[in-house]
Design brief:
Layout (H helix, E strand, L loop, with lengths): L11 E7 L5 H10 L3 E2 L38 E4 L13 E8 L2 H14 L9 H20 L4 E7 H6 L1 H11 L6 H4 L13
Parallel strand pairs: 1-3, 1-4, 2-3, 4-5
Length: 198
């Protein structure tokens, strides 16, 4: 974890990131419960895969196309950005990144179930091959993050934050120097929604 600079919350953007199905929506809900404002558009509505909501903003998907104007609205707030798009964030802002880690086999199982429910074709790669692709991607992203001077990063394990919520949130709050109301956040993790376990 990189050292905090004690910035006023209006001077940085909080980014919740990770692979899809790694617990990013849960973390967004937790931050909201802890008193942080979120930047979302509610275009992607709750469904069976994420019954409590996705907490996304569609414009994030256009980062790679250079559409950055919306970022000024994100200062002092939390926004969800998947790991593959982090490198497209402009260096004119300061970021505090909460990066969700989850067992790759659980991520793969969750993604597969989501595709099945949507009647979408399941990836032709087998789980071992796809898992290796994801792991290589994560190594590259984490190396890139470590080299960025305007990023502070805290890594949070999905399973551990569900099972040991309070200690993880205290560590997160202190590590990134983010003021959070921890007690309401403890009510967010739902063991019933932890459906793909390894």
């Amino acid at each position: 974890m990189q050292k905090s600079n004690h910035l006023n919350k209006e001077e940085f953007i909080t980014i919740v990131s990770g692979l899809p199905r790694s617990g990013t929506s849960m973390m967004m809900r937790m931050l909201q419960a802890g008193g942080m404002d979120l930047l979302t558009d509610n275009i992607r509505t709750p469904n069976e895969d994420n019954p409590m909501g996705y907490f996304e903003i569609e414009q994030v998907k256009k980062l790679k196309d250079g559409e950055l104007g919306w970022l000024s609205e994100a200062k002092g707030k939390a926004v969800k950005v998947i790991s593959a798009l982090l490198e497209h964030l402009p260096d004119q802002y300061k970021y505090k990144v909460i990066f969700m880690r989850r067992d790759i086999n659980e991520v793969l199982a969750s993604q597969k179930q989501m595709m099945i429910r949507r009647n979408e074709p399941v990836n032709n790669m087998n789980d071992d091959e796809l898992g290796q692709v994801f792991m290589k991607h994560l190594v590259q992203v984490e190396q890139w993050l470590a080299e960025q001077r305007n990023f502070e990063v805290a890594y949070v394990d999905y399973k551990d934050v569900i099972n040991n919520t309070k200690s993880n949130l205290i560590k997160l709050s202190q590590g990134l120097d983010i003021s959070l109301d921890i007690e309401p956040m403890l009510e967010v993790p739902d063991q019933g929604l932890y459906r793909q376990r390894n």
